[in-house]
Amino acid sequence: MKKSDTPAVLLSTLRTVGAAAFLAPAIGAKKLHINEDADGEYLVRLFAARNIALIVGVLASKGETRRLLLKAGILCDGLDVAAGLLGHRKGRLKKSTVVDTSAAATATLLGLLALAATEAGES
Questions:
Q1: Considering only CA atoms, which of 9, 54, 44, 39 is closest in space to residue 23?
Q2: I want to staple 19 with a disulfide (CB 3.0 to 4.6 A). Which of 34, 51, 72, 76 is the partner?
Q3: What is the C-alpha separation between 60 and 17, in angstroms, rounded?
């Protein structure tokens, strides 16, 4: 592993928490305060699938493909932050919203660092 891969590996490690919800959607639904029914589990698995795709894509790629996947992840995570802030503005003050928004902000930052490291490592 090259030093320039470290931010991408850290980002993928953070995403693994969300990806694990694919195997245990009821736990994810409970933590996110989503109904623990078939619909809630389906929604949790949608988010988990995104994390799995981004983990595999980023770790299995390099060059322009990795940059594109990192940019897609940064966009997704940035929109997750925006969603959390909009929810907060509307009065959704649940602890899970703060934790999820903080995790998305951390993922956004790690994505930016991984993108910069990928570009620096190839120049």
A1: 44
A2: 51
A3: 19
What are the b/e assignments for 31-44, b being 16+ CB within 10 Å? ebebeeeeebbebb
What is the Cβ-side half-sphere exposure of residue 123, based on CA atoms within 13 angstroms?
6
Q: What are phi and psi of 5, to 5 degrees?
A: -85, -15
Instruction: Give the residue among 10, 122, 123 at the shortest CA–CA distance from 66.
Output: 122
Model confidence over 83-111: pLDDT tens digits? 988 988 877 667 777 888 899 999 999 99
> What is the DSSP secondary structure assignment for residue 123, as one 8-state letter?
-
Q: Concatenated DSSP letters for 41-105?
A: HHHHHHHHHHHHHHHHHHHH--HHHHHHHHHHHHHHHHHHHHHHHHHHHTT---HHHHHHHHHHH
**Token reading at 95:** 């602890």
pTM confidence score: 0.88
